[in-house]
């Protein structure tokens, strides 16, 4: 998948990935001007080189990769390699050259490439993206695989339509998780929630583009404020999955420009200990899940022991099953399971 070689977004989020040691601080924003349009004709390769050098001079991360993706996108491809040498050495039209300059100028302001080209791949999907909706990261693909493995095992070979699987996603963003699950499991229905109207609209748009809207219900709800509404809409489901806001609030001050200028801070800031939304999800989980169904959370590597301790002290209906590591070896995913319940669980309004 073409987004694998663009690591700037992943590096931008390392403060979500590995704690304070991964955070960089940045000087105050300085305005950078674009190079002048060339007087004569220019090829795609020459345009890439001009902007690579300009990005380097102005401290833009991933200078060559950024310029290559933008130029390839404007030529109707996902990668420069897929275009062929002949196409890359043809002169660009004046209109196309102006488009390159316009989009690369946005990257000069540290706008992420995903927002500039307005799409990105997630597993086997190509999703539309736009600010301020959170850009899905590769680690989240790993969580989708964990959920799929368990749901496939749960469904078994003889599942009928009357035993349809259901899942709730809290914080759907662009719809990456929900839509990936729906595409892979034809018997699944998903309830997708987000506090952001922008996210709700983008998830709905992506679902329509991918033809998955019939098995997806999308709600503009904030689990921190609308708990009762969530419980009314999403009862007795097979799984609850979330990549919630989990940054420690103090980390918000040290985010890279690609994040703090463009992505929704509410999709990142998890409060003083990064657990505000996570605790609310875990409080609601026993009231939403059917017996023996699971919660899947993507968290900060500092969180798994904190989540386990908090659940053991506060949510007796949930059992902490395990912590799974991401491809980089960091403790990234918490998996919990609802134990047998007599149906008397109630939401504590206090």
Automatic annotation (TrEMBL):
It catalyses: L-glutaminyl-[peptide chain release factor] + S-adenosyl-L-methionine = N(5)-methyl-L-glutaminyl-[peptide chain release factor] + S-adenosyl-L-homocysteine + H(+). Its EC number is 2.1.1.297. InterPro entries: DNA_methylase_N6_adenine_CS, HemK-like, N5-glutamine_MTase, PrmC_N, SAM-dependent_MTases_sf, Small_mtfrase_dom. GO terms for biological process: methylation. PROSITE patterns: N6_MTASE (PS00092). NCBIfam families: hemK_fam (TIGR00536). This is peptide chain release factor N(5)-glutamine methyltransferase. The gene is LOC106516195.
């Amino acid at each position: 998948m073409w987004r694998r070689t663009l690591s700037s977004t992943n590096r931008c989020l390392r403060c979500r990935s590995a704690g304070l040691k991964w955070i960089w601080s940045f000087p105050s924003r300085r305005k950078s001007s674009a190079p002048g349009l060339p007087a004569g004709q220019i090829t795609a390769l020459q345009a890439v080189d001009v902007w690579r050098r300009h990005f380097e001079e102005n401290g833009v991360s991933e200078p060559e990769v950024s310029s290559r993706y933008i130029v390839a996108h404007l030529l109707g491809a996902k990668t420069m390699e897929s275009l062929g040498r002949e196409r890359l050495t043809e002169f660009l039209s004046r209109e196309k050259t102006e488009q390159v300059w316009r989009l690369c100028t946005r990257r000069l302001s540290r706008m992420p490439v995903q927002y500039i080209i307005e799409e990105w791949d997630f597993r086997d999907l190509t999703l539309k993206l736009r600010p301020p909706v959170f850009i899905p990261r590769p680690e989240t693909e790993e969580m989708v695989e964990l959920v799929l493995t368990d749901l496939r095992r749960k469904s078994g070979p003889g599942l009928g339509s009357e035993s349809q699987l259901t899942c709730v996603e809290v914080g759907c963003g662009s719809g990456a998780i929900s839509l990936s699950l729906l595409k892979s499991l034809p018997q699944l229905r998903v309830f997708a929630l987000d506090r952001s109207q922008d996210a709700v609209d983008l998830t709905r748009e992506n679902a329509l583009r991918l033809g998955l809207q019939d098995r997806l219900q999308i709600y503009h709800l904030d689990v921190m404020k609308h708990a009762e509404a969530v419980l009314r809409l999403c009862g007795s489901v097979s799984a609850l999955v979330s990549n919630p806001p989990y940054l420690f609030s103090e980390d918000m001050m040290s985010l890279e420009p690609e994040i703090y200028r463009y992505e929704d801070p509410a999709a990142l800031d998890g409060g003083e200990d990064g657990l505000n939304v996570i605790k609310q999800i875990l409080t609601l989980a026993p009231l939403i899940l059917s017996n023996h169904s699971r919660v899947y959370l993507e968290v900060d590597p500092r969180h798994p022991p904190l989540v386990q301790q908090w659940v053991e002290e506060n949510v007796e209906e949930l059992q902490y099953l395990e912590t799974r590591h991401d491809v980089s070896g960091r403790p990234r995913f918490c998996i919990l399971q609802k134990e047998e319940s007599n149906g008397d669980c109630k939401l504590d309004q206090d």
